[in-house]
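Exam revision sheet. Question 4 asks you to relate a sequence to its structure. Input first:
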Amino acid sequence: MARKKVREADGKRLVKKVLKQQAGLDVPIQVVQLKELQGDDSGAPPPPATIKAYYDQVLEENLWLLDQPLVVKPDMLFGKRGKSDLVALNKSWDEVVEFVSARMGTELEVSGVKGRITTFIVEPFVPHDFEFYLCIQAHRAHELLSFGDCGGVEIESNWDRVRSVQVPVEESLTEEMLEAVLIDVRDKGQKAVLNRFINAAFQAFRDFDFTLLESNPLTIVPSTDKTGELQVLPLDIRVELDSYATFKNMQLWNDLEFPEAWGRSKIHEEKVVQNLDDKSGASLKLSVLNPRGHIWTMVAGGGASVIYADTVVDLGWGDELANYAEYSGNPKQEETYLYARTLLSLATKYLDGKRRVIIVGGGVANFTDVAATFTGIIQALKDFKGKLQEGKTKIFVRRGGPNYKAGLRLMQECCLEIDVPVEVYGPDTSMTKIVELGIEYLKGQ
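Answer key, structure tokens:
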């Protein structure tokens, strides 16, 4: 499971769509997203006329923006926007445009992390008397359903009023479970409409591969039609999805964006690997820490990759650690090849006459065919023969598991063929020994 956050506007659109599809439930969500426009290649911002045309187009496609007061706030995957004075309430469309224009592209520090505001969410301003809290979280063996009658900005100080139940993955949500979390809701009409909403949301959560659905606050409003029936309205939402289920939900998620965490943006090569990971049943990860570093890692297994990175830091060479990278889940040869090519393009990008090392490490595999995965890496090494030589690169390999001896032999033969120095080790050598050897090689220049 890979948990990926989506922006609030996308989360609300998705919830509205799946609850209508799943349970015929109309959720009165109206939402618009305003994004920063990109300038030309020189880095200059777009001219005012272009920005005005953009806002005019948004308005033309969403005329309801003129019919009611509005709320606007950043849609950047960080919370407590109200406490940070980043929410404007009860505003006209012109006031929204003014608010956004003054803040779009500005730098902000949130919880010690700096980033730029590039996206806002706009929706109707809804006066309300009640604020509830709802959260559904996916765990390995169960979903955790939590509900409180005390939602809003002070939820943390009222956490003792939040009721929770665990729903085992092989079981359905029952009326008894719903009653347990709704026990503090005294009004029968409110309880009935909340019951229906939560039941539908929970089923959609499972069916459409959510990993988190949190609304704080959630409120209840009368419908705008003649019936005036009560409807549940999520005023604020957080949604995370299991990106490994992209293939299953491709049509539903087609327009969704999986943005980076606040303050971080991926470089091209990281995006390439993320795209590989999204389409694969295996796990392929790459994070660049220092693109000019001289210690590069390509490690099998998430746990092992952390151990290798920690060892580099513990030995006092953290400033030279260029990346965090791991592959696992028995990736196909073509996937390993493309993954290794991407990493090697980075490792040989900034050649400065100094030595560099590539750590091809891992523990003892249970099921992965070591020789098969090494075949993809070997193909990529041959592609970068000249660059590896120019970069005074030495490769250190440590691996165990099915067919590991053949894999180590293939790696040794490849490096002999391309005239790149290599040392290979099996499971009889401690996993992190090759880190020490790599550092000794760097010290020897």
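Marking note for examiners. The two ends are 43 Å apart (CA to CA).
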